[in-house]
Structure formats: C-alpha cells, structure tokens
Design brief:
elongated; 5-stranded antiparallel beta sheet
Amino acid sequence: MSEVRFDRVTKRFGDVVAVDDLTLEVRDEEFLVLLGPSGCGKTTALRLVAGLDAITSGELRIGERVVNDVEAKDRDISMVFQSYALYPHMTVAKNIESPLIARRFAVGDDAEKRKLTKAERDERVRDAAGILGLSELLGRKPGALSGGQRQRVALARAIVSRPAAFLFDEPLSNLDAKLRAQTRLELVDLHRRLATTFLYVTHDQVEAMTMADRIAIIADGALQQVGAAQDVYDRPANLFVAGFIGSPPMNLLPAIVRIVDGEPWAEVAEAGRVRLGAHAPAGISDGRPVVLGVRPEHLHVGDGQLAATVGAVEWLGHERHIVLEMPGGTMTVREPTEGAAPTAGAAVAITAEPDEVHLFDLASGERIA
C-alpha cells in the first residue's frame, strides 16, 4: 500500500504558517494534484512528504508507517523537481542510475536490503529508459538533449528505484505549451503503467483538470476543496475555488435575494435580477446578501433580466469572450463565433441559465447553493 495521509499537519517558518492543519488522504495508486496559486503552501506540503522539511505538528503517513521522523532517503519515495537537476557531466544512463548507487533495496525474497549489483542496476536503467522512450539516448549527455528529453530523463531517474510513491513539483513549467500538452499525456500513461501513487503539485489548472483523479485546492496553506475535476468545476465549495477554477473564471457579483411571488431571485445592484433555479436552498430569506456566481458558458446575450454594456470582444478562433460592464462589476460571456458579435459600447440584455446559478455567503464565502 502506498497511500499518503496528512493528519492535521502544520508547518511553520517562524511566524509564517505555510501549511495550516492539513488533513488529506492520497489514495493508493491515485493521481492526486495539489493545485493553488504561487505561495499557497502546496510545494511545502510536498516537501514534507519527501522529508526535505520537518513537520511542526500533526502526523504524516506513507502506507502504514508514520514518517515524521524518518529520513528522506528511507521514505521509499522519488521526487521530480521543477528544474531537471541532471548531472551535466554524466550520460543519460549514468543520470538514471545515480539513485541506485548508494541506496539499499529489497531484492526478490531477500529479507535484508542490500546494494544492487552492476547487472541489476543496468537492468533497471534499461527498463526505465524503455518506458520513457530513452533507449537510444543513453549514451548522450544532458547538453545534447531537448527540454522534453531532459524531463523524461528526470522521470526515468525517479522511477528507476521503483518507489512506493512519486512526488512531482511543477515538472512541466519549463516546457513550451505544445510540449507540455504532450508530456501531460505521457504522465497519465506512465501512471497507468506503473500503477502507483502520484502526488503532483502545480499552479496550472489545465494540468490539474486533465491529469488528476482528484484535485486538492489549497490557498493560504489551507485545504479549500478536494474532489474530481468535474465536481470541483461544477460545484465549487467557496468563492476562492469559484474564482480560481475555470478560464475565464466564474463570474462573481454581489447580489440580494428577493422572493417574488414565492420564487427566489438574485438582484444585482442596478443591473436587474437573475432567477434562481433548482439549486436554490429551500427557505432562503428575502433580503439576504449573497454573491452570485455564473460560469461564462451559462450566460447568454439576448433577451434577459440583466442590463450590461459591452466593454470588449475577445476572439479565440473557436469561441469568443464578451466582456460586459455593469453596475455591480464585470462579467464575461463565452459563446461560439457563429453570428454577429455585439460591438464595444453596445447596450445588451443578459440571461443566465437558472439551474447553473451558484450562490455564496457574502460574509464567509462558503457555498449556499
């Protein structure tokens, strides 16, 4: 078993709380992504698992073993860093082999760990290189490789020791957009073939949404929400998640609940009102201040109850984004490129799909509906 479990884990650097009372389970053989903005504590959480930083309080387990006081070399994990961290003077084969030189491993039915023989090391290097398509590059040095090839060497070096869990610290950030997309697919395939636990850190929500079995979103060192990518997108737990997930992110505007003929609406300043659909909580009170949330794809320009002015139209080839200005703030509409687009400065009416409207408490930011 290679699950990783945080139980009320806190990490402080002086007066700064980098990880705040984190409770999270990374399931055995799961691909879990820690997602959040720069400085939110996600990399610190990863370093705690790796043993590179010491825990201030709480308990951390890898499998059934508490590892709070276990040295990094004895935790049976491998880590891939943002920089490739390859030895420039060594060949690809020697770089991949490097984790095997000094460590001891359980081999076959041997009860006691021992160092690997040269033949055993060579076999592991060949296997790792074959998995990642590096067999023809084993004699080259890193300076003769492309960025994508260097990243695959770093991955091969991580898997060669056959650890219980893999840790990834933004490993694709140094690659160009096309290569990132290709490497995402390779990582998902690698996870499937290795059938072990992946804990992956990134600030890029596209990476998280396309690769993860589950996403754990972190802000200010605290866990905000954990769930499957589509669940997090469809039902964000709070305002932070709603504003962070999605590109463009969810439209968020202050509003007041109004009950009209027994039906709940959200009134947006001087712009008008939006009907609340099936997700509106029973018994919500008239006059309650809330934050109204609507995804850009669930807004439509045309007949509607919200008045707005077109600020700009952004063309993306397959779709366009219409940026709207209104008394309560700005909203973005995502729509296909068919048909004529409104022009900047035009007055338009907006409608929102009632069953896709989200409500958040104005004071706490937590989801109401």
